[in-house]
Amino acid sequence: xxxxxNDELALLRALKSSNHKAFEVLYYRYSPRLxxxxxxxxxxxxxxxxxxxxVFQKLWERRGEIDPDKSFQSYLFTIAKHLVYDxxxxxxxxxxxxxxxxxxxxxxxxxIEEEYAYKESKKIVNQAIENLSPKRKLIYTLxxxxxxxxxxxxxxxxxxxxxxxxHIVKATKQIQSFCLSKEITPSLFIALISAVLNQK
Length: 200
What we know:
InterPro entries: RNA_pol_sigma-70-like, RNA_pol_sigma-70_dom, RNA_pol_sigma70_bacteroid, RNA_pol_sigma70_r2, RNA_pol_sigma70_r4_t2, RNA_pol_sigma_r2, RNA_pol_sigma_r3/r4-like, WH-like_DNA-bd_sf
Structural class: mainly alpha
CATH superfamily of the largest domain: RNA polymerase sigma factor, region 2, helix turn helix motif
Domain RNA polymerase sigma-70 region: 26-90
Family: Belongs to the sigma-70 factor family. ECF subfamily.
Order of helices and strands: HHHHHHHH
Shape: rod-shaped
Radius of gyration: 39 Å
GO molecular function: DNA binding; sigma factor activity
Largest sheet: none
Keywords: Sigma factor, Transcription, Transcription regulation
CATH topology of the largest domain: Rna Polymerase Sigma Factor, Chain: A
Helix content: over 70%
């Protein structure tokens, strides 16, 4: 037991003096148990191996700070503990960042998708108007798009306001029926009609 202690003391003193052989001996002596300890914490072999290498890298970088009279194993496991803490801290940050990116991406995608659907649906409304009979389309355009009153259209076209009203009612039903056949929801249809009516 005393011989082992003296052997390790000699190795630590040699390590403090930048002895690569001493470092190698200590690595092979402690790495198996240290790896098992780290793996038990992080659960991922590749991550445990990476942290293990980081532990010994830091050991080499801080070799001048080693106190040979203190427990080397405790010193080594303390370095590992801090690196495992850093690992989890980064994982949490990365996970939060990923969730944020996914959230933003999903939000942006949904916005683009909705905008595309709106534009495509608006085209369908315009197509529905184009499909009206020439006279009905003219009356609908004059009243609903150009904003003329029934009386103005009546005077211009020489037809009664009741006839104009009949054309408007039937045109609206035709447009709605056409849009619904293209799977445009009623609420979107109302919004689109408003947009079409306000575009000119």
